[in-house]
Amino acid sequence: MLEDTCVMGTKDEALLPSRIVYAPMTHNEGHRYADCERRFQGIPGVERTAGGRLYYCFYSGQDDEGSGNFVMLYKSDDHAKTPFTPVMVIEPPTPMCRTFDPCLWVDPRGRLWIFWAQSYTHYDGRLGVWASVCDMPDASDDCAIRFSAPRRIANGIMMNKPTVLQNGNWLLPCAIWQFMSSEYNHLENERFPNVYCSCDEGETFSLIGHASYENRLIDEHMLVQRKDGSLWMLIRAKNGIGQSFSDDGGYTWYGDSDTGLGGPCSRFCIRRLHSGNLLLVNHHEFNGRNHLKAMLSRDDGRTWEGYLMIDERTDVSYPDVTEDETGHIYIAYDYKRYTEKELLLACVTETDILAGKIVDESSRLRILVNRAYGEKT
Fold it and tell me: What's this model's pTM, rounded to 2 decimal places?
C-alpha cells in the first residue's frame, strides 16, 4: 500500500482521505448537492449487484472539471423503471482538491467497489486512485449500505473496471497522463497506461508494468484477457484506439499499434460478456462525439458485428457497461456535460446488438438517470 503521509496546506492535501456523506440532499434549493445547484456533471459508471440492484456513479458540482467537484452515487431497485435515488457523495478533502472519474465494480465475492481519482487542483502530476468497499450492496435498509474508509491504492487515474485473470489476480488500469505536466509532481517513470495488480483480492496493490503507445492521450485504457490467456490492452488515442499485448500477466507489453477501430479520442468500453463474446461500445461512423454504438465480437476482437445505435446525438460520450444474469446489458453514458447535464442509461441485449436494432421487448434506450440544471456563476 502507498504511503499516505501529507503536509497540510500544500499539494499533499490530495493525499488526505475524502469524506463520505450519506443520504445527500439533492432536492433542496441552495444545497451544494441539489440538482438545481450542480453546474456540471458527467463521466458515469454503472454496476449491478447479485441481488439485482443497479448502482450509478458520476462526478459533478462546479462550473467545470476543476477543484471542488465531488463524486455522487445513486441506486435503482426496479431496473431503472423509476428515478434513481441518491446514496452518497464523496467530498474532496479540501476546497483546492477534487474527486473525479469514478468507477464501479462488483468483485468475485460480490462486494461493491467504488474507485475515484483525487487531485490537488485540476491536475497535480501525481493524482491518486482511491477505493472504498461495500460488503452489503443489496441491503434492504439504506442505513446498512455503508462503505469502508477511503484508501489510496495507486498513483494516477482509473476510470475503467478491473479485470480478473484466469489465475485469480486482479489487474487495474491506472494511468498518469503523458500529455500534461504539473509544477507539483514529476513522476516521469509513471506517465504511461499502467497496470497495477492485486494477488490477494484487494488487500494490497502493486505497479507491475505499462504499455507505451505513442499516440496515446488521456489514456483511459482497458484490459481484456483473451481466450488463449494473453492480455489485450486498448488505449484511448489521438487517432482512435491503440493497443498493446502481454503474455506474462501484465508485466511486459509489446506490439503497440493502432487497432483500426477508430474513435474521436474519447472514452470507450470493452467487456467480456457471460456468453464469452466481447462487447465494445464506441463511436462509429462518427463526426465528433456522436453515433455511440454497441458492437460484438465472437472471435476475440478480430472482427466486429451488429453496430447497434445507442445514441446518435452530438456530445454523447464516456460509456461504461455492466450485465445481469439474464443477458441484459446496461450502458451508462453522458450527454452535454455543461448544458443539458444529462446522465443516461441504455438496456439492451446481444440479440438487439446483432440485429443492429431493438428487437427485445424489454430493451430501452435513453433512460434518464439524472439531470442537473444549475447555472454557471
Answer: 0.96
